[in-house]
Design a protein that fits this description.
With 161 residues, the chain is mainly α. Helix 1 packs antiparallel against helix 4, helix 2 crosses helix 3 and helix 3 runs antiparallel to helix 4. The protein is globular.
């Protein structure tokens, strides 16, 4: 299951952050690029989850995966690296697919046999709550990488010829 998670994350990250977001940031800037990438990521999951045409599941999945896509796109934009979004994405998918889920390949490690109402609420909280928490953490704890030298650094940097 881990190999399946790794391959799906690698594919999605290279597509949505490595290609789409990179091009969008270069052409229209980070704010609009992050938003478009997040929307595309949310819509993509309608098809990967096989729920296209079912309005309520489409709404819930779009919000959850769109928020998470926004968080990962923000992490990419701030760090200028695909490694943080890829690691976060792999951790998320591994947790839901291998530990708590019956899908996509087999029964997860910590899934009960019976389905109770609280598990549905837990899934909704996980689908929306975790992305919001992660987004707040990324927004306020990751410093934007600054590749330009400040005026002070330029004045104090010795000339090497």
């Amino acid at each position: 299951m881990f190999w399946w998670d790794f391959n799906s994350v690698l594919t999605e990250e290279l597509l949505f952050r490595g290609a789409l977001l990179f091009i969008l940031i270069e052409r229209i800037g980070p704010r609009k690029g992050i938003m478009i990438s997040a929307v595309a990521f949310g819509i993509y999951h309608w098809f990967s989850f096989g729920i296209f045409g079912n309005i309520f599941p489409m709404f819930f999945v779009f919000i959850g995966t769109g928020l998470m896509g926004y968080a990962w796109a923000l992490a990419f934009s701030k760090t200028k690296s695909i490694f943080l979004p890829m690691g976060l994405h792999l951790g998320w998918n591994f947790t839901f697919n291998t530990i708590f889920s019956k899908d996509p390949l087999q029964k997860g490690l910590l899934v009960s046999e019976g389905r109770i109402i609280i598990s549905d609420w837990f899934s909704l909280i996980g689908l929306w709550g975790v992305p919001v928490i992660l987004l707040v953490i990324i927004k306020f704890s990751i410093q934007k990488e600054n590749t330009e030298l400040t005026v002070k650094e330029v004045k104090t940097t010795p000339n090497i010829v």
